[in-house]
Fold these 2 entries.
Entry 1:
Amino acid sequence: MISDSITNASATAAPSARDFGKKKRTNRTAKLKQSKLGLRREQWLSQVAMVNKGGKEEMDANRKPGSEKSDQRDRPVVNLDGHQRGEEDDNNSGANRHESFMESLSNSPNSILSGMNSIPNFSSSSSSGSGGSCSGNITEEEDADDDGCLDDWEAIADALAADDEKHEKENPPEFSEEHEHENIQQSACESDVAVSRKQKSNQAWRPDDELRPQGLPNLGKQRSSPVMNFHYSSVAVPSSCPICYEDLDLTDSNFLPCPCGFRLCLFCHKTICDGDGRCPGCRKPYERNTVKVETSVQGGGLTIRLARSSSMFCRS
Amino acid sequence: MMTPGGSGRFRPLPTAMYAGYSGTASSWVAKTSVSASGKRIQREMAELNVDPPTDCSAGPKGDNLYHWIATIIGPLGTPYEGGIFFLDIIFPSDYPFKPPKVVFKTRIYHCNVDTAGNLSVEILRDSWSPALTITKVLQAMRSIFLKPEPYNPALPVITRLYLSDREKHDEVAKEWTLRFAK
């Protein structure tokens, strides 16, 4: 198969990458954490190949061409290229491996949104973008000395292996399935694959997908944020009285004494009505005449409750 | 027998303590008794510090929250340009419902300011609204620098000159600014 040849090529790529890593070893203590991440990646790759025999070829093909390709170029380009590839790679595979949670985050909104046309586009782009940026950060750390620190950290790798196995055993089936036909494209044209992978990584889980993780955020949670924002923007009741700056309670919030829409608390309204009785918002007098109407009507036996509770306070 | 002696012995101590605390206690009480206006003024002070209007500044004169001092710098392009005008602002105890009393402490040749510094500005009288803040008052002060209100004069003499001979008016105003506000 084509992927076999790629795997062989990647085997030769390893030593040169190590040499490059040795040059960078002066500051390796600072990059201990990043090296660990890189190691995890390597470890995972080798172990997945063993654990998941069926998906082995796709695995290697998916992962190794990065190093293979970097080997064919000059040294300075190696790092850059590795970085780019790593970022693309990580969008689908890296996130899968290390951050199954992250992957579910980045993938889920699209799946939900693809089903829900009513939700605006921006939420999908933002959520997928955040997922992408997260995975991007991971790769940047990894690629700094991904290959180079392999020999140094082999011992630690063994210690980490136990921890890694947990993640690996969860992920491989969906991983291999997901990228199976990508590898065919990849062998055809590298750059095209890079683009298609990016799209792949953001591709939504279909609701009927049997491999869809159980832990994906549910629809209601995704929907809630835009709806809530809309709700808040539509309600324009001030939180505090503009006159005395005391918080408006529920009664005050429902109190609309003037048609101009100026809201204030009941205390301030009473004080104003005891004085000149003009609305602070429009300077027009509060409607005192409605009170007279009320009393006369009550005399006639009809009870008409005024819509504006302000009348109660204007009586005096 | 016992109680008078006991009280006699202990009485001086509480009274002394009370006397010692009376000063602070009274000032504290004075502030809380008008807390509605006090809170409002404090809030306005905070807002003014965050977003002061152009060419204006204001703040309490001393530790009395109800007595402020404000400065307005004469806006460019007016005869008051470059002058610094001090104003006293005195808040009534029922402040937001009654307008603050604003008085020019710096002499100014302006048709809306009389010789004692009192202002004939509608928003400080009949057009006052509790929704207005000291920031808006200061903005109104600045706007009468830019555009006097000749139809609501404090000094009709100046108004007459302003309407009949604007150049002469501006000249005198500039001279007054130079003499009193710099």
Entry 2:
Amino acid sequence: MSIIDIIRRGKKLKLFIFIGIPMIYLLIFFFIPFLIAFLYSLGMFKQVVYQYVFVPEPSLEYYSGLMKFPGIFKSIQRSFYYASLTTLGTFLISYPLTYYIGVKLEEKYRDLAVLIIFTPFWINFLLRVYAMRFILHEAGMINLILRLIGIISEPIKFLGTDTAVIIVMIYSYLIFMVLPLYGVLEKLDVELLEAAATLGATPFKAFIKITLPLSLPGILAGSLLVFIPAVGEFVIPELVGGPNTTTLGTIIYSFFLRVRGVTGWGIGSAAALIYIVLILVASYVYMKFVGGEVRLG
Amino acid sequence: MSYAVELINISKSFGNVRAVRNVSLQIRKNEFFSLLGPSGCGKTTTLRIIAGLEEPDSGVVKLDGKDVTYVPTHKRNIGMVFQTLALFPHMDVYDNIAFGLRMRNYPESEIRKRVKEMLEIVRLSGLEHRRIHQLSGGQRQRVALARALIVQPAVLLLDEPLGALDLKIRQHMMVELKRVQREVGTTFIYVTHDQSEAMVMSDRIAIMKDGVIQQIGEPYEIYMKPRNKFVATFIGDAINMIEGDYLEPGIVATSLGQIKTIASDEYFGKRVIVAIRPEKVLIGSEVTGDVDNVFEGTVSMTIFRGAFIEYRVMLGHDIEFIVFKPHVGSSAPLLTPGSSVKIGWNRDSGIILVE
């Protein structure tokens, strides 16, 4: 065997280690379970006592069961509503924030500023969301401050409402928008803006024509990172919401963990499948719409 | 007639660094003017102050006679070619060049016409829909030039735009820049640390060091009559210098003995440097009886430089003279290292410098 052959084999080994092993991991922990869930949703895979039975006749029984579930369409709609507002809210907060950190702030303070934004995320997610219950409570800090400065006389009831869910979701997902945006804005070449100014562009026009298009890859990545998990969010609507904040996520959660059994898992799997299809469609439309504008280098 | 650009007592500091100190300049219309100096001399800061990208701590900036010291960049009628070129990476050649006209809300039909004209001037026709990353260094350079020129700025500012190019392309682009400047008839202010670029293209050059202008003049003038030691050494390939005391009119006493120079009362009694350009030094049979200063030396090195020959000649123990000689015909006698040789120069070839 020649040296070149050994090197070639070495290359193949590296490819296997760095791509093959993660792929095997995904196969075992994602694709196969996903296939099982798919079979479950079609009633083709059942657990009878301690036996797993494969039934070769697909049926849409669980899907129709899910469609008959009261408020299902409203919940799906609500999931997308929450996710859209969360994406928009995190974007509106993150863009100016990361712009000023990544472009305007002196370079030596940038890492520190990003670190400060990160600090809430050192605390356990459940704990953070749970703490928000106290802040949003009628006797909580927000109501207290609003009353002290005299904006309201009666406490506002946040908990159990859409507002509470969206506030907490924006707070929880913020970092997933901040990081990709910071990534593109920190690399923005300020000389491009100076060049635009020498060509007669006002700061606003330079922003629209240069900064915004060049940060589009970050906007795209950030909004997908926020939107996709936000559609499936179930902890936040459970903890700060109420009967009127059921989402697709809470429905999947309750079928799998509350209803359980063959039917619970069947309907839960059907809901998870619908969730995936909707996400794929929404992401595709979004990438077509926004991503079509993204042209790199 | 007002000047295209006038700077009056401009100063600018960054923290403790005084980048520009009391700079005053008058740049004429349609002039090719260079700001030349080593890195950190304040030339780029001066250019950015003209562009409005930096605000001076004190002083006045005038464009076409009008005070624009506090006018923002986008309202000044200037164009700029950046050192990094700063081409918009998300746009093609056409959109880059059209940018300035679009900012001025020109109709698309007019933009199309003018971009086409400009592409011809910078010789890029046919490449309008190329992306920036698909262009060569020289082509990017032309796009940056076209983008800045299309808005017909009163002044075009160029910040070391040729720095990143190979020598051959750079030499070519120097001639191109000069051609374009004549063709569009715009004032060019060119910042560079490369004296050959400045010499080739400029009508006038300002030499800067440590934020201070050392000398302003035509290339010939700066080369022949440098005002101080810094300018004399910075400009040109090399210069020979001997220190001495100017004790009597037209005579400087040095470690080599008396050197005859031009007579000028202003140096009387001062410690001076006599500087002679290598091509002004006579060598071997050229040194005839009527040459003013003649010295005996030893050839220490002979270097073939292509267009000419460079001799290093030791005078005494510690003074080495550099002599450039064109080679005439194929029989030009090469002096071999170690041989004794006479060198000399006439008094009007020597430049007197005060530290």
